[in-house]
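Give me the fold.
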Amino acid sequence: MNAKRDDSDNSEDQGSSHVISKPGLFARTRAYFLTGVLVSAPLAITFGLAWWFIDFVDSKVIPLIPAHYNPESYLPVGYEEYGIPGFGLLVVLVFITIVGWFTTNFAGRALIKLYERILGRIPAVRSIYSAIKQILETVLANQSNAFRQAVLLEYPRRGMWAIGFITGDTKGEVQHLTEDTVINIFLPTTPNPTSGFLLFVPRRDLVILDMTVEEAIKMVMSGGIVTPPDRRPVEEQKQPKVSAKTYEDVDTLREKENVPILVSRDIPARMEPTDPQEKDGKAHEDA
């Protein structure tokens, strides 16, 4: 019976008009072109940006080098205009390394304290310098965990999720005013992740993601087009960890009653009416 059924199927396939036709020349050419764009565009953009950066640094640094120390001065005739690409960038890297080495000894630390003291007396400059220094120390410190972990949080409301990055533990007045232990979260925007919002989110409301920071940034920049794979075990993938919960007894009460502080879940808070007419009407009803 199986053989007959196979024969009938084959006969139906042969007589059927739904025959899969091969793509035409134009369709194949279009597919080859799009594939070429996907392959060559990232390489071209990356090479172009790198070349622009190197050329920009060379144009600013090489004119500052004396002629007898500049190797471009010893190039053969006809090659001077081409120069040595990347030589200015190499000089900058060596200079920064020497500065770092110099600041590790006693004289370097004393010099740093001297110019920081001078900058601290300039009203406008001291604010900018201290802010930039604090940001760089936080991001580049070896012991820092800033921008090293991607998280999932509900934003801008419950039921809607967004990807954020942990920048550190909340300290100072913000932490002292909140009952929960909150974390500093940087919420980037799409497609430019360099801008965003600073949120103070309770630790218990954060979901730590297994994807790397680089993968999360790619997902944000692409608007969700580039989605990293889930590398967790299959058993964990089948078990949801979060859901859009709505705390009716707290959140709804705070929205309706306009309560700016935490309220008890057992005893709803009631605010006194601020409108004098409401007060008079309530007093009249009580009478």
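The first strand starts at residue 150 and ends at 154.
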